């Protein structure tokens, strides 16, 4: 008799993709076109596709990368604005899903809780919760592909603020933006200096009475044109597909050149960014107080402001920047360590994200729980000792989707290689146990540093060294063979006999 406490198994799939955002839709499209015989499903815990671009609803939300590189290589970006708003990006993603026949493969309200691998059966058993009904079910799959990014969707990061309960107005985190928040004509304080803060401030400044960006530490901020004039011209005369492809190459090269210049010549890059800021800000503005970070350019991500909208709001007087530390909240605003009080009707805590590896899915391999810090990332897409498992993590120093496209291609080639040779199991294993390792992401952003000890590691050499450049990954993931001495293949029958 079956145990009623054990959820019923609801079917077997060749590949189970977790997450219907930009990475999951991309993975589904590559599977659909490159390996049409493979069965797959895309599980999405929320009620809608689009991931980040459906979740976040705060004013002005947009990309901070151009859509020629942030969009898919296979689907031209046709809009005139290359720095696009969330609704345009969301429409693009859903159009991609529909055009590629992915809609029937997406299962909404399906939250993956845990996955257990059996080498004897060469399959994952995946525990899923229906978020709309609370029902539990199980699926089995030959491969598990985590495409949910690396931060928690249910809660953003807010540090402890002394006296927060004393404040009389609303305190809002951008990740939980209420639809009915009224800030028209009101004094708004936005706490933070990252990409979210520099997006919110000019977007709210046109409606609010005044918006103050309160930052503890400045960030590098650079204006970027909303429209790519060269790209729009190429599309006009060469057609959408060719114009998109050429503009994509141009922008990939530009991203790489800017990052390289900042890394190689940080003092010169700092001076150049400062010069641009001075030209954008009012005469006599204290640039070094508010736009002079203590770290080097691209030690953390540069904040892009489309058409200089943040600087324009400062020039108009509808927005301002204050660099100081919070001593305590008061009934009427925020008291700073300098003794100054910022009066506010609304406070927005644009203080960052909470990183959550693999969407919080608990992994088990042959009865042993996977402890992520004990694993090493293989080619930036698999984990040592974890069979038939892949994940999608994009770049931190250029457009996220550039890497996702390459690793989805490689993933499909890997599955085809296994089919051609009759393999059921693929497991990366470090050949030299003494190989030095270091943190998975070499990035100074606070949200990464808070969680880096809970993430996998990376090695000191390829294929265990996680590439940070598109050009290197083109060689590793597109041009190189999927076969590797440290990638071990097996058949389920042979594994069962050995066991």
TrEMBL record:
Cofactors, names only: FAD
Membrane-spanning parts: none
Gene3D superfamilies attached to this UniProt entry: FAD/NAD(P)-binding domain
Coiled coil: none
Pfam families xrefs: FMO-like, NAD_binding_8
Keyword entries, A-Z: FAD, Flavoprotein, Monooxygenase, Oxidoreductase
PANTHER family noted in UniProt: MONOOXYGENASE, PUTATIVE (AFU_ORTHOLOGUE AFUA_8G02570)-RELATED
Similarity annotation: Belongs to the FAD-binding monooxygenase family.
Name assigned to this protein: NAD(P)/FAD-dependent oxidoreductase
Species of the source: Dactylosporangium fulvum
């Amino acid at each position: 008799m079956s145990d009623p406490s054990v959820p019923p198994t609801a079917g077997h799939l060749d590949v189970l993709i977790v997450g219907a955002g930009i990475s999951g839709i991309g993975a589904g499209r590559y599977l659909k076109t490159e390996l049409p015989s493979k069965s797959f499903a895309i599980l999405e815990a929320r009620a809608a596709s689009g991931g980040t671009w459906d979740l976040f609803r705060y004013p002005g939300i947009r990309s901070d990368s151009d859509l020629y590189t942030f969009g898919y290589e296979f689907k031209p970006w046709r809009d005139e604005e290359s720095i696009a708003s969330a609704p345009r990006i969301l429409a693009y993603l859903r159009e991609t899903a529909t055009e590629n026949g992915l809609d029937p493969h997406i299962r909404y309200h399906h939250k993956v809780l845990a996955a257990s691998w059996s080498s004897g059966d060469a399959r994952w058993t995946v525990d899923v919760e229906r978020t709309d009904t609370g029902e539990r079910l199980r699926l089995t799959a030959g491969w598990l592909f985590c495409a949910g990014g690396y931060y928690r969707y249910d809660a953003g990061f807010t540090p402890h603020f002394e006296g927060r309960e004393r404040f009389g107005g609303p305190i809002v985190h951008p990740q939980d933006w209420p639809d009915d928040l009224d800030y028209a004509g009101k004094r708004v304080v936005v706490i933070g200096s990252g990409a979210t803060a520099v997006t919110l401030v000019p977007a709210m400044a046109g409606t609010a009475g005044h918006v103050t960006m309160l930052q503890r530490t400045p960030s590098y901020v650079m204006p970027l044109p909303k429209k790519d004039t060269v790209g729009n011209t190429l599309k006009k005369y060469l057609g959408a597909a060719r114009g998109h492809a050429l503009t994509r190459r141009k922008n990939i090269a530009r991203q790489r050149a800017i990052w390289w210049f900042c890394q190689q010549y940080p003092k010169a890059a700092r001076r150049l960014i400062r010069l641009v800021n001075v030209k954008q800000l009012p005469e006599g503005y204290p640039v070094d107080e508010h736009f002079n970070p203590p770290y080097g350019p691209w030690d953390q991500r540069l904040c892009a402001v489309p058409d200089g909208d943040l600087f324009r709001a400062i020039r108009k007087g509808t927005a301002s920047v204050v660099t100081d530390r919070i001593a305590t909240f008061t009934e009427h605003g925020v008291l700073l360590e300098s003794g100054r009080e910022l009066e506010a009707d609304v406070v927005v805590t644009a203080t960052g994200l909470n990183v959550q590896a693999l969407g919080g899915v608990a992994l088990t391999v042959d009865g042993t729980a996977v402890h992520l810090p004990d694993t090493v990332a293989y080619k930036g897409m698999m984990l040592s000792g974890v069979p038939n498992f892949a994940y999608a993590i994009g770049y931190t120093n250029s457009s996220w989707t550039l890497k996702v496209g390459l690793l989805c291609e490689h993933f499909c080639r890997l599955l085809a290689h296994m089919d051609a040779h009759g393999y059921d199991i693929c497991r990366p294993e470090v050949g030299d146990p003494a190989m030095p390792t270091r943190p998975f992401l070499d990035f100074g952003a606070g949200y990464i540093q808070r969680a880096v000890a809970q993430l996998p590691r990376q090695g000191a050499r390829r294929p265990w060294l996680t590439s940070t450049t598109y050009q290197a990954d083109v060689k590793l993931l597109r041009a190189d063979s999927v076969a590797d001495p440290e990638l071990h293949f097996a058949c389920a029958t042979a594994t069962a006999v050995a066991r």
